[in-house]
Amino acid sequence: MSVTLFDKILDRSQIISGKDLETRYHHIWHMDQPLNAMCLLMPASTQEVSSIMKICFKNDLPVVVHGGLTNLVGSTETTGNEVVISTERLNKIEEIDSSSRTMTVQSGVILEHVHDAAASVDLLFPLNFGARGSAQIGGVISTNAGGLRVLKYGMTRQLILGIEAVTADGTIISSMKKIIKDNSAYDIKQLFIGSEGTLGIVTKAILKLEEAPSSRNAAYIGFNHYDNVVSFLKYIDAHLAGKLSGFELIWRNSYEQMTSVSHAVRPPLPYDYNYYVLIEALGSHPQNDHAEFQILLEKALEKEQILDAVMAQSPSDVEWFFRIREDVNNLVDFMKHDQHFDISLPIPLIGDYIGDRYESLAQIEGVEQIYAFGHVADGNIHFMIGKTHLGLDLKKEIDHCIYDGLKEIGGSVSAEHGIGTHKKDYLNLCRTPEEIILMKSLKSSMDPKGLLNPGKIF
Amino acid sequence: MSVTLFDKILDRSQIISGKDLETRYHHIWHMDQPLNAMCLLMPASTQEVSSIMKICFKNDLPVVVHGGLTNLVGSTETTGNEVVISTERLNKIEEIDSSSRTMTVQSGVILEHVHDAAASVDLLFPLNFGARGSAQIGGVISTNAGGLRVLKYGMTRQLILGIEAVTADGTIISSMKKIIKDNSAYDIKQLFIGSEGTLGIVTKAILKLEEAPSSRNAAYIGFNHYDNVVSFLKYIDAHLAGKLSGFELIWRNSYEQMTSVSHAVRPPLPYDYNYYVLIEALGSHPQNDHAEFQILLEKALEKEQILDAVMAQSPSDVEWFFRIREDVNNLVDFMKHDQHFDISLPIPLIGDYIGDRYESLAQIEGVEQIYAFGHVADGNIHFMIGKTHLGLDLKKEIDHCIYDGLKEIGGSVSAEHGIGTHKKDYLNLCRTPEEIILMKSLKSSMDPKGLLNPGKIF
């Protein structure tokens, strides 16, 4: 019955319901599981999203937004009674302004299309991660996505100048400005960034672009002591003066596994070290930058801050180096079942904390593989755990092993993936009761009926 | 009577009331005007601020926070019945962690002390502006201050990792983490940054530090056409690859005035051009960086993108170059009365918009001087207007002349100073009714009695 509510505001081709929902799914990894929802709507404008929300608000219909469906914490899950709003027809790049260095996009534009469009005018949208070919800007904003170049360019929050969003009652909040600074009262776009679709539906954004770099250097570096990883980070960051764009740490056993499955990911350095760091620098003088990078590594070798280093000598080397780090399937493919983590903690504490987790996890019956790696310059470590079965007790034991120590050291259960449904039970480990009460009061102030992405975060 | 309310929670030495208030003032420029308030309290801990707010909440007492009192939009003004909380005893730097590259400070620490403490361990807190010797971190956070190096390092919002704040009912919201990434639910610290003390009182913060640069280059450059300013910005930013830290534009008549009052601010370039740009680059290779900078300028001269350029040849030259730009008194001292502006607009539109304002302002009777300059790479222009009298009609005529066109082009009446009391009438020029309603609902959700900095922003 309820689907007919939307007939007046949308074309029939924009509404999917009944048996047709079986062609849809809630996550890109679960295409075989038919979507469980009241209907799926495909608005083509902010106005249509607003009209949908007005009907949902009047009729108390819960709403879940679907973008690229690559979220890793269950934020796009449905239970069956929701109106799903797909942003797939909000897919236009409306403008690229190369003088303002901005791109105006609808929220259904795929991240990789943003990259390509920026590159076509010698600009860069620096946000980058593995799922770029599917992830949409709306989802990127709603999770405050991070990725591989946060060190130099920041997370999504730092790359968004303007936002248009629709709130629970259908109000359009439009703040589509190309300006870099705006201290005219509260910066309300921050409410929509990283709130996982629980405070509003982003329909458009103005992205901040950067001038495209013309040189890219990369190297793998070997260490035995974590303290040297930290001192090298400070050294290389200071001496590259704004060019350091990536500083990825891989623990030895992860490196061995990542580099042993095929020639395409052969090891750039031998298996002699406890820690492997992949660094990247983006500059504007191909020849000078290569030489400078090499001299900095040589000096670090001389003073024994680093034990070994190999520089990429060509663009294909750079690709090879990053393929090792990016293709997480090389870790997961050999697992019976996997469980992944995305924790954040102070940089100097990472070595001990992760080392301790390796030891404790190894004691858990049912744990078969333990791989750690991550964006260490951002204090963000990913764990991939292989296990024998999907039992809830085992899952929780692994969760607690990794999460429980974070509270004491001021860490977070989510550096970049968000809370969604998967991490709700652990939110209190990294947020105080007072913070959670304040968050819930914001939620009930902006979405008093609790219609937007219900059951997520809290 | 009411002052006795605080006797139980504070020492007598922390309370100023009655005639003693005459030694206090509401703004550093108005030390001759005695403070008009119920009392002034000097808490020395977050807990004491919380206790004060619990009493104020119970007794419906409005609260205004006083830090360095350098705010430019009237945000520290009082009307007489307020409890003023001074942060002057919250003045401890609690920790510098050079591996995490963080500094933990109480909110009354003066910005310049932060700079010095960071420099003592070869780190940099990049936020920098003229009032650094008086402005306190709490005020910096509450206004989301910008300044001279936003281009490279961002505004305050990008430099704050953790915050502790007290809300209207005395609740302590503590999120003091050193982590760079934290997507565990809503980023509520954003609520306290830039909200001008209307949503909570910041008592502590964890600041993000950067590795200190070891080279600093600067140059003045002359242009006749604004389009070339924009193309040169893109050129130099692309080729300095992360090192460009300042790009300040000064209109010809402002440059003439700024450089004519003493030998200390003598003109680096002759008075031959319509626009003067001061650029700064921060790097890590003193010799290479100087040579690279010079070559980039020579190439721009060759292709006639720029008409003239003079590079600083020594640290004292750099100081000289910046003294010209920073000493706004050289503009104001010759005015009978002054009115200043802090607008934000898309970069490519600045030349025409400011040019038109020059023409329109010159038509207004009572306007004697018109000076424009600003952080053009951030789209942020300051106007200093000299006028014959303080009449309200003249003030409004000047306001409207500068502000009225901003709505159409997506600008803002405040790039970095905030709204306070001075710009309340113009908030609707850069915010939609829906945005303002949402802001007000946030305010009433977090401060239902309207006790925090009443009368500011709205």
Automatic annotation (TrEMBL), chains A, B:
Gene3D superfamilies: 3.30.465.10, 3.30.70.2190, 3.30.70.2740, Uridine Diphospho-n-acetylenolpyruvylglucosamine Reductase, domain 2 (3.30.43.10), Vanillyl-alcohol Oxidase, Chain A, domain 4 (1.10.45.10)
TM spans (from-to): none
Pfam families with a match to the protein in the record: FAD-oxidase_C, FAD_binding_4
Cofactor(s) named in the record: FAD
Assigned keywords, A-Z: FAD, Flavoprotein, Oxidoreductase
FAD-binding PCMH-type domain location: 33-212
Family, similarity comment: Belongs to the FAD-binding oxidoreductase/transferase type 4 family.
Protein name, entry field: FAD-binding oxidoreductase
Biological source species: Nonlabens mediterrranea
